[in-house]
Each structure stands twice: as structure tokens, then as C-alpha cells.
């Protein structure tokens, strides 16, 4: 198992894994599956400090993690927002832990001051993973978004890096 920076050749694999997360209705408020162009615009048309990494074996990509801009306002330029997705077949085997620890190292190297994230409250695996890595609970946006007509609560977490 290895981790490397994502390249545009990984777009197809990243798209498949991200769409699994969308279809499972546990990872994101997005409900429409995405195409390659969406992934390219999201991950490959932005400054280098917003790094995307992939976890892979000899044959395939097993997951990806990325630092997104938290806000376009310059006051927040040292804040990154985390996204992490592991292929359905490989969840619960420790890979999320491995790739998120690496992403935190990269965030420090890229001079971020903190990482934040927003997770569905019912996402047990995600919330457990973040707490394990050291993210602190900031609060809950009650009934913040809708999935299939139902309001859902969103947990906010942060990790100070200095
Ligand atoms: C959330 C996700 C990234 C976690 O990665 P993972 O490889 O499955 O997690 P790990 O195996 O590293 O486990 C991390 C911790 O969560 C726990 N965990 C894993 N799956 C769990 C589950 N279904 N329910 C409860 N806890 C779970 C593990 O026990 C572990 O804690 P421990 O080391 O103290 O035992 C992965 O499940 C995933 O991609 N899910 C779909 C997309 C998603 O939800 N992304 C996050 C959006 S906020």
C-alpha cells in the first residue's frame, strides 16, 4: 500500500470512489453523481497547496483525501477543509486512518494553520476516524441540509496544526 499525490490519470478512479460516497447518502449532501469534468474542476484546477493524495496498491486506487479551500476570503487562507473517501470494498480496514494522517502531514508542510470538516452526524465511521486523529468537536449545525427531503444535522470539527 502506498500514498502519492493524485494526477489527472486518477480522475476516473477518484470519480468512482466519490460517487460511491454520494450514492451511500452518508458522506456528503451531494446527491447527483459526478462526471470526470467535475472532478477535474474540483481537484485539478486550483493552487498546489490544496493537495489531493491517493492510497493505492499495485493495481488500483483504494481511496483519496484532499484539502479544499475553506473560503475564498483571504482571512481564511490558512484554513483547509478535508474530504476523504475510501472505496466501499476497503472501508473499515484502517486505510482511512493511514491516508488522513498523511494528509495532516501535508497540510502542515503546506503551511495550513488548521483543518476543518463538516460531516453528517450519522456518519459513524467518519466521526470516529476524525476523533481518533485528534479533530475536536466544534458544534452541530442542526437541520443544516436536506437529503431526499429530510433535514440532517452536520457536525463541525477542527484540528489546529501549529
Ligand atoms: C469515513 C471513511 C473515510 C473512514 O475510513 P475507513 O478506512 O473506513 O476507517 P478506518 O478503518 O481507518 O477506521 C477509523 C476508525 O473508525 C472506526 N470505524 C470504521 N468503520 C466504522 C463504522 N462503520 N462504524 C463505527 N466505527 C467505524 C474504526 O474502528 C476506527 O477506529 P479504531 O481505530 O479506534 O478502531 C470511510 O469509511 C469512507 O470512505 N466512507 C464513505 C465516505 C465518507 O463517509 N467520507 C467522509 C465524509 S465526512
Automatic annotation (TrEMBL):
Gene3D superfamilies: 3.40.630.30
Domain of life: Bacteria
Limits of the N-acetyltransferase domain: 1-162
GO molecular function, one term: acyltransferase activity, transferring groups other than amino-acyl groups
InterPro entries xref list: Acyl_CoA_acyltransferase, GNAT_dom
Keyword line: Acyltransferase, Transferase
Keyword NADP tagged: no
Protein name according to UniProt: N-acetyltransferase
Organism of origin: Macrococcoides goetzii
